[in-house]
Amino acid sequence: MRLPITTNDQSAEPLYHQIEVQLRALIVSGQLKEGAMLPSIRELAQSVKCSVITVKRVYSDLEAEGLLRTKQGTGTYVARLEEEVLSTQRYASVIAAFEGAIAAGKRVQCTDEELTLLFRETLERLSEQGGPHHEPGER
After folding, report:
1. 69, containing H or E segment
2. Is 60 exceeded by the pLDDT of residue 133?
3. Global pTM?
4. Do residues 85 and 66 lie in contact, with contact meaning Cβ atoms separated by under 8 Å?
5. Who contacts 135 (Cβ-Cβ below 8 Å, separation ≥6)?
6. Please, what is the Cα angle at 101 between 99 and 102, to 5 degrees?
7. What gap in Å lies between CA 55 and CA 19, rounded to an integer?
8. Phi and psi dihedrals of 65, rounded to 5?
C-alpha cells in the first residue's frame, strides 16, 4: 500500500514529524479505515526516502497514541477508534498545525492582524482551488 505522504526537505519541521502529522491526518480523517494494514517500516521508509529509524519512531508514537496497533509477525494496522477519540484527534491535528504556523509567523515578526489576514486569504484560496496545494520542495 502506498500512502499519500510527502516530505519537504526545506521545512524546519523534523522529517519524522512531517510524516507523523500526515499519517495521523489520514487516520483521523477516515481515509485510512480501522484494520487497514500499513506498509512495512522498510517500505514506507523507501517510499518517503528516509531512514527505517524515522518510520519506526512514527509508528511507535502513533501506537502510543492508540491510533495504530502492531501484531508481531503480521504488521501494523489502524486501530479501532471511538468517535469521541477521532474527533479529539482531528481537532488536535488542526490545532498543532495552527500553532506551528503561528510560531513561524511570530518568528518573522508578523502581527496578530497580519496572521489573521494570511489565514483568511489562504483559506479562501484553498477553498477556491478545492483543496491544499503542495509547496515547492515537497516530494
Report:
1. strand 68-71
2. no
3. 0.71
4. yes
5. 8, 10
6. 65
7. 8
8. -80, -10
